[in-house]
């Protein structure tokens, strides 16, 4: 991704708010045909159509073949197990795609895989299908009862709503927004930190959940203040990707802080935090002192955008 010689980091990129170009889990291509979710006749016809394809999922994993390239194994409806059924969308040829939770079909040459293993390797359509299905499986599996009255809810809208039979309340899939921000200082150094549960060589940028009553920009500023004690300015949004591990939406930002203030890591959230120039980060990665985030994450894309290309030894799966 860079023509810079191997012994030096690439030239600094301009600090525009250019969006992130590639996000592993934000590549879905299907038309979600949301208006068809309540059309029972259309849904029945689609399920009866042998061209229809079904992604079977169990505990976040689906069958994947790896030759000639990683691809989901989709089955026709008559080979799908009984189970909750979710309309995932329609492809460019008009073929409907459903997700079903249940025992995985055994397919020669395939093995079960989840988003962490293949989310960055699958093609655009398959990556989107698996991301959508993983999110719905988790939501249905953890939100079976009405939060108002406790009654068992039933699935509606082809898997995108649950309805309470007692009080009629509707419940929609839960997505938790989380901000993740690459903070730079006046010298364009990047702030990297280590979370309390992380391996000794793992570093990433700061992140946190958005709180009720808070804008995304406010969440960025609050999290940086809480985690390392710094004020930030110039908060800019660069892109987002679903992160259904289990139920987040990651919203990527850059932010700047002025020099002169010390880092004051919150020991509850940050084991250590430090500023890195491109040269220092490259040297630390080269020396094996730091393992940067893998390509599945929006963190890796934000770091690469700042760095100006891929870091050495970034895991390529
Ligand atoms: Zn209820």
Describe what this molecule looks like in 3D:
The chain is α+β, with helices and mostly antiparallel strands and 317 residues long. It folds into two domains: 34-144, Nucleoside Triphosphate Pyrophosphohydrolase, CATH 3.90.79; 176-307, Nucleoside Triphosphate Pyrophosphohydrolase (Alpha-Beta Complex). Helix content is 20%, strand content 25%. The chain is built from six helices and 15 strands. The protein has helices spanning 40-48, 115-118, 124-142, 216-228, 278-286, 298-307, and strands at residues 53-57, 62-65, 71-72, 85-90, 96-101, 110-113, 154-156, 161-163, 170-171, 176-184, 190-194, 206-209, 233-243, 248-256, 272-276. The protein has a four-stranded mixed beta sheet, with helices on both faces. A three-stranded mixed beta sheet has the order 1-5-4, with helices on both faces. It is globular and about 65 Å long. The chain starts with 39 loop residues before the first helix and ends in a 10-residue tail after the last helix. Residues 1-6 have low confidence and may be disordered. Zinc ion is lined by residues 146, 148-149, 151, 164, 166-167, 169. It is an enzyme of class 3 (hydrolase). Keywords: Hydrolase, Magnesium, Metal-binding, NAD. Its cofactor is Zn(2+); Mg(2+). InterPro entries: NAD-cap_RNA_hydrolase_NudC, NudC-like_C, NUDIX_hydrolase-like_dom_sf, NUDIX_hydrolase_CS, NUDIX_hydrolase_dom, Znr_NADH_PPase. Its EC number is 3.6.1.22.
